[in-house]
């Protein structure tokens, strides 16, 4: 399996916790089975949706190992190893590689942010020393900084870069990135409400929160587009908008964990400062879930 060829729907997996706030490993097993059965094309662990910001390194490695073991080579597993500390990102990248993840997700250095050259060297310091391909992660709404056009151009030819997760929400930026796409540098939508628009620019798929609850729908939508059935892909994108918007009616991953709890997949438990949904948001999410046929 060549992870560099990954197309389709990569789920941004939640990390389930039990009522005592501990990692719920049997729930991880259920989620992995759910995604394998519903044709998810890849699994991302330890991303924003996975609440890695409030987990210890030991917990991160335990979750990654469980998912790698559960998947058993059937689909790619990508591990989030980004940090605002370059040394920490490198250490975590090496640790996840040793556990058997197929690729890494590297977010821009948040909070301290750095300038353009600093961000470039932050990435290359990791990329030069790991033996796994990596996806760059551009999400300025979370990090406060973006991967500049110049840095995309410089990084896209690095032998350990396989693509970019583009979550700026800007079609203009995505169009700029699309100039650099090739068989060796892919783009994945990081916004569930913009999957088809980015596919039209040459993206290979999506790293998706929506896929946590409707994995087959998201897989089929991307495959329809890649197979040339633009109309079916567009219809799936538009039909899913209310559910997608409800999954982001409060900060991710609060709504998606509530949704999975409604489906009986996990306990609705978070690490603080995340907190359960407000009543209005819960009503909106419940209505969207019923409308999508996910709950009665």
Description of the molecule:
The chain has a single domain (3-229), classed as Aldolase class I (TIM Barrel, Alpha-Beta Barrel), CATH 3.20.20.70. It starts with 7 loop residues before the first strand and ends in a 5-residue tail after the last helix. The chain contains 13 helices and eight strands. The chain has 296 residues and is of the alpha/beta class. The longest helix is centred in the N-terminal third of the chain and has 15 residues, at 57-71. Strands 1-2-3-4-5-6-7-8 form an eight-stranded parallel barrel, surrounded by four helices. Helix 2 (57-71) packs parallel to helix 3 (86-99) and helix 3 packs parallel to helix 4 (116-127).
What's the gist of this structure?
The chain is built from 13 helices and 8 strands. It has 296 residues and is an alpha/beta fold. The protein has one domain: Alpha-Beta Barrel (TIM Barrel), CATH 3.20.20.70.
